[in-house]
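## retry 2 of 3
previous attempt timed out at serialization; input unchanged, resubmitting
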Amino acid sequence: MKKIYLIGTLAAASLTLASCNDFLNDNRYPLSQQTVNSEFWSNTVNVQNQINTFYNDYAGYGNRSSTDGSFYFSWLSDDQCGRKTFVDWKFTAVPSTSGSWTAPYEEVRRANYVIEGVEGSNLTDAEKANYIAQARMHRARSFFDLVRRYGDVPLVKTVLDPTDDAALFGPRTPRNEVMDFVLEDIDYAVNNIATKSSKTTFSSDLAQAIKVEICLFEGSYARYHQKDEERAKKYFGEAVKAGEAIASTYPIGNDFSATYKSFNREDQTSGYKAITANPEIIFCKTYQEGVFCHSLVDYSSASDGVAGLTKDAFDSFLFRDGKPAASTSLDKSDKGVPEGTTGLSIANLLEVRDKRLAMTTYDHVLMPGMTWVGPNTAAMWSQSGYGVSKYNNFTVPENDVNQANRNYVCAPLYWGARLYLGIAEAKAELGTLNDADVAKYIKPLWTRADIDTSKLNLAWLRDMNDPANNMNVSSLIWEIRRCRRCELMMDDDIRYWDLIRWHQLEKLDTYTNLAIAQGANVSNSPVAGGAVTGDYLNCTFGVGRKFENKHYFYPVPSNQIALNEKLTQNPGW
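## retry succeeded, writing output
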């Protein structure tokens, strides 16, 4: 019988794969209690328990009172300023140890144990293929995380013998070789996971969605970093193939907010179905009131500061006529309207812009020193003046919004919009995007954003030529990137990794990109508050962020290099 899990609340597995401090110790001393006999792995309950631990790899909105979620809490981007302090680079010095290195290798190790254990079991061939496919899917995700963080990394394909120094102390494997192995793993998962579609358990459709993300990254990296056109075309093509295989199963819904604000039950007040009943959802993380909650909405509605949008993010949204600020005929002023003696409304600004913006931020400036009370929140403020309403279901009682570990709106993990934008971008990069593709993958997103689609086609996107395009790409690519940014803003750290793969990380330099250091225009504000530069709130907390090429990769932890003389440090570190 299929079991539905609240991802993150799974019971401890019967076989503990203990975490260690580093990759080498993980593999030299792999288990505190090693169980590798065929009898153990021939029991489907035992195997399923091991597979279940992979659910913990999906952070979603976070767990309980933590800030470990991958939505909203990823503040290193041009979309958000810091919550209470300035957000610098992921690393500013070489750490001695880092979970960014060890955690993925722990999952690789876990996957390898499952694969080898199941291969030697007495399960049926179909059962073996299903479990091995799920393990290989998560091994692929783990190596993908390692490569995009570190580049070349040791490739571990099997359970390592703790007495085999040659395997334990090997050099870094070239990233292309690792990513080709990742593609093999994810393809096996696509073809062998038994469940075709499921919102809350691992499925072959989920593997396809993961493959789109992996191949989109690798295709972009090959084109914009390595200048390897053959490799770029291969991976963009694989992204398209994976996406188109499942796109029709996950159509774009009519309500942008339903993706982010639904519960694990139907809600009559808000009108949202249960997140698992949303056709657009491929895979999600469910929370349950009073049982398993998170704190994202509490942190984004805080009286001690909110990580608000930047002016650059605000300005990235198109106007309702489908044009950017440079060519729109609508009012493009960024000045709010005073409201009494204490408020500054920006409802007038939101009215003429992409509707997703109004569903992402509040219609008032949350000015430092001038707290504002939202629909179901206590007083709050943002260093940038712009708040974050994207994840706040206004029907939830204030007491459940403004307390840690009391938030229970559910998190999308993979969904239609994310998939469609991956397909559209990959096809545009291949030069194969056509009007039918625009109608299928872009138009539904514009439609629910209330952007005029009467002229939307390939020629329209090619001819927009927004002067704000500062990435040295075609108008078509720029507009698809814009749509991706606005649709997925603050979601799953997507923007940061997009800038990495596009070779555009320098856009996070606050000295050369002033709009990411600015917030709302407060020239019309009836009260003073916060740090103001000219007409705009300054959201850098008086600190700057200077880009260097070394920031494209994380530094390898020094303890790893000390343990293994064959490991080398990344350039610049």
